[in-house]
Amino acid sequence: MEGDALLQLNTVASSEDCERAVGMPDLHPGPGIPIGAAFAFRSTIHPRLVGSDAGCGALVVALGKVKLTSNLERRIRAEFEQAPIPGHDSQAICREVWKHGPKALAGFDISDTTTYLGETLSEDELMPSGDLPSALYGAALGTIGGGNHFAEIGKVKTVVDKVAAEAMGLRQNSLVLLCHSGSRGLGKALSDKWGHRELKQEDAEEYLSELAGAIRFAKANRVLLASRLLRALGVSRPSKITCAFDAVHNDVCHEECGNGALWVHRKGCAKAYSGQLAAVLGSRGTPSWIMRGKGNYDGLRSVAHGAGRKMQRSEARAKLRERYKRKQLHQSANGALVICDDKSLLYEEHPDAYKAIEPVISSLELSGLAERVVSIEPVITVKK
Fold first, then answer.
1. Could you write out the DSSP letters of every residue in 28-40?
2. What are the pLDDT digits (tens) for 227-247?
3. Taking the domain 3-382, which CATH number applies?
4. Exactly one of 249, 265, 305, 350 is catalytic; which is it?
5. Distance CA 184, CA 142 (A)
6. How is the chain split into domains, by residue range?
7. Which of 43, 306, 358, 382 could form a disulfide with 151 if both were Cys (CB 3.0 to 4.6 A apart)?
8. Please, are residues 105 and 97 in contact by the beta-carbon 8 Å criterion?
9. Model confidence over 246-283: pLDDT tens digits?
10. Is 265 considered catalytic here?
C-alpha cells in the first residue's frame, strides 16, 4: 500500500470522534482522503468521506440461457450511440427516481426487464429523499460517466461456491452484466454543498435526505445501463434474469457495529453483512469476483470494491503511451473487447494502471471479511 494512502487513513482515524478505521486491501490515495476504506464515528457525519460520487456502486445481473451473437459489438455500439431513454422525458424520470429509486422506473413503461429489475432492487432502508437540486440531471440517467465507471458483459469463469452460484443461476460460461456507475453530477453537487462540513447527528437530516436521493438516482441509473446491455443482447423477457443485486460503494449509514450503533462511512467499499453478496471489480482485462460477506465487525462488515489503482491517471497516460499503441487498447490480453472513444481514458483505465485483483481477493478471505462465489471474465466492456 502507498504511504500516502496509509497517512490519509491514519489522519482520518485520528479524528476525535472516530471509533474504528478499516483500510481495505485495495486502499489507495484520494483527494485528501483514502479510497477503499470504512470509518465509524460515534455521533458525527462527514460528507467528505462519502465524496463526490455519492451512491456509486455496482449492479450485477445474472442471466440464464442467453448466448453471445456475432453482431453483438455492433449492437452495443448502436445502443450507446442513441439517446439513453429514447421516447421518454428524462427530467420526469429523474424527479421520480430521486424520490423512489429504481421502482419508479416501472411507471414509465421503458421495458419489461427494466420494470423487473427496478422492482427487484426497490427495497431500501433510506430515509425519504430531500429536495432535488435540479431536474436537469435527468440527461445523465442511463449514462456511464468517466473515470473507472463501465458497463460490461462478462461470463462466469471459475465457480468456487457451487451452492451459492446455483442459487443465483450461475454456471460455467453463463453471462453476467456488471454496471459500475454513480450519481453523476448530483454527487458532485452534494459534495460542493456539504463536503467541507462536519455534521452532528442532530444537524444531519438535510444532508442525509439529499444523500438518500442521490443513492436512489444512482441505483436507477445502473438499472438503465443494464437495460441498454439487455437490449443489445436481445433479452426482452425477465425470465432470462436469474438474479440481480446492487452494492453501493460510497455512502454513510447508522449501523450496528458489535457494541452499539455507529455512523459507518464507506468510501470505495461495500457492505458485507453475513451472507450479503458484493462484486469486487477487476480491471477491464482481469476478472471480477462475486463474493459473499461474513459480517465481520472488525472490518466494519465491509468489503473492497475493486483492485485499486497503482498509477495516478497522469502517470498512466505518460507511461502507457510509450508501451502501447492506441489500436492495442481496444482488446485486452484475455481477448475481451473494449468500446471506448476517449483516447486518454483508454490509457488511464488500462489494466496496467491497476493492482492485481488476486491479492485483494485473497486478503479479503484471509481477513475473514468475505468468501468467493464465482469469478466473472470480461467479454465486452463499454466506457463512454
1. EE-SSSEEEEEEE
2. 999 999 999 999 999 999 999
3. 3.90.1860.10
4. 305
5. 10
6. 3-382
7. 382
8. yes
9. 999 999 999 999 888 999 999 999 999 999 999 999 98
10. no
